[in-house]
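$ run holo --ligand "adenosine-5'-triphosphate" --emit tokens
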Amino acid sequence: MSLTQEAVTEALKSVIDPNTGKDLVSTRCIRNLAVNGADVRFEVELGYPAKSQHEPIRQMLRDALSGLAGMGRVEIEVSSKVVAHSVQQGVKLLPGVKNIIAVASGKGGVGKSTTAANLALALAAEGARVGMLDADIYGPSQPQMLGIGDRRPESLDGKTMEPIEAYGLQAMSIGFLIDIDTPMVWRGPMATQALNQMLKETHWKDLDYLVIDMPPGTGDIQLTLSQSVPVTGAVIVTTPQDIALLDARKGLKMFEKVGVPILGVVENMSIHICSKCGHEEHIFGAGGGQSMCDDYGIPFLGALPLDMQIRQEADEGAPTVVSDPDGRIAATYKSIARKVAVSIAEKSKDMTHKFPNIVIQNT
Ligand SMILES: Nc1ncnc2c1ncn2[C@@H]1O[C@H](COP(=O)(O)OP(=O)(O)OP(=O)(O)O)[C@@H](O)[C@H]1O
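-- output --
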């Protein structure tokens, strides 16, 4: 019996994408399937970056076909294509930027900047083109974390600033434009204006994702920023103690109010593992991030331990995802990055309108 396209498709239907939980046929990821005698060739196009998953997915597809009678050679090409998604109503997308991910926290000092840096690097490691915009006006830390502290952006055309390259990321920080040693009183409108200028006047080059390290808190400045920046979705970083979770809930509500979808919650400093004896301790409490996600029906993206390695590497200007790319911590950041990217990919291009249409009727 000779091999048919239908039989191959049927066999491929049994393969579930581990990242989306759906089969690759019904999600239309299988392209250009060609059956030539006993040989099969096709492409798989994932909607999210997942370099680390290409080989395992290829292997699962091969395994699914191996049982077919009359099977010859199998050639599978796996790639990723990230598309642009809609943002809040009334806010325009940025040229050269497909999706913007806001990394926010209700409370300061929970590790938002460290998470933002590692998330951006993890998305890049999975094969995406990624930018990092440090909008933390209270304490811009990305230049230091990305090891580019003393460099300043240049302008080639006199109109736009060139982002600074760091570990493959296109980086821009409010810290490049202000002297962080000088105490500055930033008022709301000034901060918004500075951020808008950085967003629009940076020469972003074909970015799949721009990660924004937001200023911590849920005050007027944060609210204005979350309204004016064209955000695809927000990631909330929290530590597990009650006070941080309370503030994280406020952050969540703030984004909800302005129509920005929540991509999920990252619990940082979740557990402490003693570097000497390996004893595990929930210093800041256990399970808080997960239960907050259960309450609001949003994804729990993952948990990072309180680990000296994370602090040392970030402070030294080479965050863990680049310092120890094959380690356990980098694997957690990459898993979080894939969940964020999958959640964006699954977002409908037409965002549900938050505000009702106003119809004027002539009577
Ligand atoms: N999981 C972790 N384990 C150990 N240290 C961490 C971890 N996450 C962050 N840190 C350290 O905690 C400090 C605060 O982190 P970070 O600057 O990322 O917090 P933040 O929430 O962005 O703060 P801010 O409110 O100032 O913006 C840094 O020194 C960082 O290296």
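-- notes --
The pocket of adenosine-5'-triphosphate is lined by residues 105, 108-114, 136, 139, 141, 216, 268-269, 304, 306-307, 310-311, 314-315 (CB under 6 Å).
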